[in-house]
Amino acid sequence: xxxxxxxxxxxxxxxxxxxxxxxxxxxxxxxxxxxxxxxxxxxxxxxxxxxxxxxxxxxxxxxxxxxxxxxxxxxxxxxxxxxxxxxxxxxxxxxxxxxxxxxxxxxxxxxxxxxxxxxxxxxxxxxxxxxxxxxxxxxxxxxxxxxxxxxxxxxxxxxxxxxxxxxxxxxxxxxxxxxxxxxxxxxxxxxxxxxxxxxxxxxxxxxxxxxxxxxxxxxxxxxxxxxxxxxxxxxxxxxxxxxxxxxxxxxxxxxxxxxxxxxxxxxxxxxxxxxxxxxxxxxxxxxxxxxxxxxxxxxxxxxxxxxxxxxxxxxxxxxxxxxxxxxxxxxxxxxxxxxxxxxxxxxxxxxxxxxxxxxxxxxxxxxxxxxxxxxxxxxxxxxxxxxxxxxxxxxxxxxxxxxxxxxxxxxxxxxxxxxxxxxxxxxxxxxxxxxxxxxxxxxxxxxxxxxxxxxxxxxxxxxxxxxxxxxxxxxxxxxxxxxxxxxxxxxxxxxxxxxxxxxxxxxxxxxxxxxxxxxxxxxxxxxxxxxxxxxxxxxxxxxxxxxxxxxxxxxxxxxxxxxxxxxxxxxxxxxxxxxxxxxxxxxxxxxxxxxxxxxxxxxxxxxx
Amino acid sequence: xxxxxxxxxxxxxxxxxxxxxxxxxxxxxxxxxxxxxxxxxxxxxxxxxxxxxxxxxxxxxxxxxxxxxxxxxxxxxxxxxxxxxxxxxxxxxxxxxxxxxxxxxxxxxxxxx
Lengths: 608, 113
Description:
By secondary structure, chain A is mainly alpha-helical.
């Protein structure tokens, strides 16, 4: 079924003289339409589906105001091959839908990436990256993002924190108690899955037996801990807070939207909350064999995740298989003559007023309803709209969502500025914002609340520390430290050779002389800056505004640069470059030599 | 307005009692165990957030049954000022859970089960 698509994808990559298109974005929009048609034929498509998010992201990319037509190899042949697949899917009820959906995601992922790297417009590219991220998450996700997954990520973090203080009884007790909760939850889910036929019987029995064994071992651990000796140091308390938070997350009531399949999947993939590590932390000998067996069973699952069957969804190709030409997926804008072209209605960052947001939410809801409703029995919201207008409503709905996201785009850039993996994080935030735009209910708060809702969504996405692929992201707002190259130094010996020492001293002497020649008004802020004081503190100490302090530091550097350049013909390396080891060491030596250089701490004030 | 004092020692006692109840019901896999675990999770976080300045003892803890642990924990929780709900967002949930667990345990295993 996918053979022609595979051949066309290969041709796209290798054809030396491919047919060209003058408007890649139009080609791509049409291709997405075919992808969505196939996805629709595979079953109902929710707004959280990666293909739905791809369609929304494509709308966002296509609507970017200043995106110019892109000359590129044409996607026409791929689109035609996909259209054939769509027909195949519609006509053949006897194929593996799960496998077809996985293949579709792969094809979409490869294609959106192909288009993205050929899109020169940064904003359009960011939209496409969002679609790519959503598909990446769906393809590579160790698990669907879920509350249990977030809880387990917190648990894993807590276990890492616990290790230096694992001997403390209060910590061992908390770890055992928390893990008992995980075991109980897994036991209940495995039991339920086995009864529903979602998990092979022997596998479920083995898992249940070992869970019980490990629980008994934890019971022994707990019975040996004397509750009267549970004093905690400050360090223990800090660790306990982290463990407690994770346990609370794990023992909270399950999200009603999380299926058994999702919860059990994430627990199995986590090796049931790192059973082996927990057994080592509690130190109970009888825990280790049971934990090792659980870990092996979890590995077995990882090797064959299809052993857990999705029992929550109907497996037989009955209701979702309705694909009739007239009820097929609404085509994307530009792909259908029936859909009027939709122009961008707002520029990114536009502050929307209440009525505008209400209007966008209304368009969005109409679009979602039109995309999923049964034409024979239209829901209340679609009454009065002829079914022939539904594709237009779907397109307008997506447009409304991209407008809502576009209105808060500056937040994404504010949150990701100077962060590690900024592009990845930004892609994830686009996905989060698209989800938020679909979820936002103006009736529950007020329409103007959209900006705050979006802001909280972006903040949470960042704080949660887990992306759609289940990858734990470091919660850090500080930039990644600059790479320091070895520059030919022998890494085995940290000591500089004697020649370097002499050279360093000359460097320091030259810098000291040059500094001495600076006027006080420039020297003081520069010295304070070299000593690592933040700009705000320097400004406060010296009684300047931050911008003045910044300007004076730059001016002082300029003076030094000129002074040293006239002394030495070598190219100047700025102080803050951080990659020149000699200069770095020279600055360090200088600071040691002049610990109380014109004070950065005392006697500063506006009078100067 | 005077701020309500946080009953850190009482919280530590509840944490000990519910830890013991969890241990005693570690071989149970039903919904009741899930409720005990949830209550334990709440008390564990409360105790970690508001640690007691001195070690706390519950006399005869190791001789208590699960039901007695839950009853004692519920008694402790009932002594807490309801105004603490602002500082302990899970307080209401803990009270409800403990009452439910107590009722369930009482009906399934009898008074001295």
